[in-house]
Amino acid sequence: MQPQTATLSPVSAENSRQKFLIAALNSTAIYVLAYYGVWAAHEGSKVAMSRLLGIRGLWDPSRIVYTLADREWWQLAVLGVYGIGPLVCFFIGVAAFWWYWKRERAHPGLFKLLLLWVAFHACNAIFGALLADSLRQEGSWYVTDWLLRLGNAADVVVALVAGLIQLGMGHLGSVAFLQAHDSHTVMKFANRKRMVIYTLMWPWVGGGVFIGLSKLPYFSMHEALHLLMMGLLIFPLILGCVNDPFDSTVKRAQPSHIAWGLILLAVLGAVAWRVALSPPVSIL
User: Fold this and answer.
1) Distance separating alpha carbons of residues 229 and 160, to the nearest angstrom
2) How far is CA 31 from CA 24, 37, 158, 202, in A?
3) Any idea of the CA torsion for 160, 165, 170, 171, to the nearest 10 degrees?
4) How many whole angstroms separate alpha carbon 90 and alpha carbon 82?
5) Which of 105, 107, 111 is nearest to 173 (CA)?
6) What are the strands, taking DSSP E only, across the chain?
7) Distance separating alpha carbons of residues 44 and 12, to the nearest angstrom
8) How do the pLDDT tens digits run along the chain, 284 residues long?
């Protein structure tokens, strides 16, 4: 006798595909919403520090451009302006992950996934951004350069270490990411490859494209590299999820549905950010 192969009925296959599409749409909206929240905290704290120190510049939808000449900067200004954003993101990331891990991961709903993406974006705003900025010698690269004052070799080492930390965070985060999903269909180990495509690759690529398009013509290489460096966290997450047999989820999972509220918030957040900062706002 030939062994029987388990196949899905056309209805079951269509339902499964629909659940993955819903998961992709919701995850992309959450990715964008979390990004704008972390980006607003990063840039807002940078602007507040700039005003406190009397440093002038222009704030557009994609970045802050300072109009001071190189000789007008001093060490406290450099460390304060370029260090405050990563510092704020550190506390946001720790708080979001603690909230997720201690209070939300056993509960149904999408809020826990939002918290986790906030933590991931905060991680990228520190470590991924440092690596990206070091490539162009701008942004948070100034902090390590002015602190160490050991030349380009030391700056390169620090940047590479930041990249390795980002990779490690992605690997460690796979367990938390798996526990952030409620759908039994999406969580099945047999569907794991589809899961990472729809819930990790789609948000990263689709969310990044949406963010970039929403900021044209202001979208900068500075921000593009930051978004690209999220891949250093995404790919270890994918590898960890694919190889982890964990497929349990909450006992009373909610039916899959499109989170129109989150989608609307993500779109409105992008529109509001664009309208508020174009034309660019003068600092001081």
Assistant:
1) 12
2) 10, 10, 28, 10
3) 110
4) 14
5) 105
6) 57-59, 64-66, 281-283
7) 47
8) 344 444 445 555 667 788 889 999 999 999 999 999 999 999 999 999 999 999 999 999 999 999 988 888 999 999 999 999 999 999 999 999 999 999 998 888 899 999 999 999 999 999 999 999 999 999 899 998 888 777 788 889 999 999 999 999 999 999 999 999 888 888 888 888 999 999 999 999 999 999 999 999 999 999 999 999 999 999 999 999 999 887 777 666 666 788 999 999 999 999 999 999 999 999 87
Q: Report CA torsion sign: 123, 117, 208, 88.
A: negative
Distance CA 226, CA 127 (A): 10
Whole-model pTM: value is 0.92
* Main-chain phi, psi angles of 62, to 5 degrees: -110, -25
Q: Are the C-beta atoms of residues 181 and 199 closer than 8 Å to each other? A: yes
Q: How far apart are CA 26 and CA 110, in angstroms?
A: 8
Contacts of residue 8, defined as CB under 8 A and 6 or more positions apart, other chains included, come to: 16
The C-alpha atoms of residue 155 and residue 106 are separated, in whole angstroms, by 42
In the three-class reduction of DSSP (H, G, I as helix; E, B as strand; rest coil), residue 116 is classed as helix
Compute the distance between CA of residue 224 and CA of residue 211 in angstroms, rounded to an integer: 9
Q: How far apart are CA 249 and CA 112, in angstroms?
A: 13
Beta bridge partners of 57: 66, 283
Q: In this structure, how many other beta carbons lie within 10 angstroms of the beta carbon of residue 38?
A: 25
**Token digits of residue 45:** 């704290």
Q: CA 230 to CA 167: how far, in whole Å? A: 10
